[in-house]
């Protein structure tokens, strides 16, 4: 036993971890902990051990992230697959026209980069047209089953326009409460004949599932009308 303890001491002083010493000598790590807990080791050995622990942690983190990416991709594909099945149910429903209009509008004006290369994944539809935005609000409620209480609205407006007036305008036009508006994004004033006095509205639902459902419906709509 003394021989093993001496060997363990020398290995520890060289910067070997308990796991490495245990594997070499066949001694339990609990025993090594008792033997070596008060053994002083050099700065070089300490740095060697710390570096190894750091490398192991990074490797474990990378592996975990890769596993999570694979699981996420599997989940997203499952959502899209289910969306493509529900597509035909929606096409045969009483809200067929609203369904086609909503999916088409999102295809044209909605946020889709999350399905390609962006990390952010949420339903986000932006426009300045009140009628178009109202259609999307109805689409969310009647087709997607998402009530106004889950709807987050952001106003993007230039600094020379009246924010309070704009929020009231959109609240009336869309039938939503002013409390559903997040903090407005104020942009520098500029001269432009295309500038909208009431700004641009983003309709957002922070749901990965709804986002990928929309992507699935868009993909199936493209196939349907080819």
Could you explain how this protein is built, in words?
With 226 residues, the chain is α+β, with helices and mostly antiparallel strands. The chain has 2 domains: 2-67, no CATH class; 81-224, no CATH class. The chain has helices at 2-13, 18-25, 29-36, 43-91, 96-109, 130-143, 163-174, 208-224, and strands at residues 123-127, 152-158, 185-187, 200-205. The chain has a 4-stranded mixed beta sheet with strand order 1-4-2-3. The radius of gyration is 29 Å and the shape is elongated. The protein starts with a helix and ends with a helix.
What are the salient characteristics of this protein?
226 residues; alpha+beta
What integer is the average pLDDT?
A: 83
Rg, alpha carbons: 29 Å
Helix content: 55-70%
Number of strands: 4
Straight-line N-to-C gap: 79 Å
**How many helices?**
8
Oligomer state of the chains in this structure: single chain
Coarse shape: elongated
Major β-sheet annotation: 4 strands, mixed
Q: Could you give the order of the helices and strands? A: HHHHHEHEHEEH
Widest sheet, order of strands: 1-4-2-3
Q: Provide the low-confidence segments as ranges.
A: 67-71
Q: How many domain modules? A: 2
- Computed structural class: alpha+beta
């Amino acid at each position: 036993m003394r021989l093993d303890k001496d060997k363990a001491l020398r290995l520890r002083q060289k910067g070997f971890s308990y796991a490495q010493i245990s594997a070499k000598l066949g001694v339990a790590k609990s025993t090594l902990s008792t033997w070596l807990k008060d053994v002083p080791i050099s700065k070089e050995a300490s740095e060697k051990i710390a570096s190894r622990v750091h490398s192991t942690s990074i490797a474990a983190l990378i592996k975990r992230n890769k596993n999570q990416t694979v699981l996420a991709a599997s989940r997203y594909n499952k959502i899209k697959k289910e969306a493509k099945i529900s597509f035909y149910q929606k096409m045969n429903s009483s809200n067929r026209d609203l369904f086609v209009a909503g999916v088409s509008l999102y295809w044209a004006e909605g946020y889709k980069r999350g399905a390609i290369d962006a990390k952010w994944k949420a339903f986000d539809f932006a426009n300045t047209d009140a009628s178009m935005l109202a259609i999307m609000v109805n689409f969310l409620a009647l087709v997607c089953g998402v009530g106004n209480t889950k709807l987050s609205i952001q106003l993007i407006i230039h600094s020379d326009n009246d924010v309070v007036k704009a929020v009231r305008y959109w609240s009336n036009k869309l039938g939503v409460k002013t409390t559903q508006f997040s903090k407005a994004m104020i942009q520098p004033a500029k001269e432009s004949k295309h500038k909208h006095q009431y700004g641009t509205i983003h309709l957002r639902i922070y749901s990965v599932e709804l986002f990928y459902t929309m992507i699935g419906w868009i993909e199936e709509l493209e196939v349907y009308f080819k």
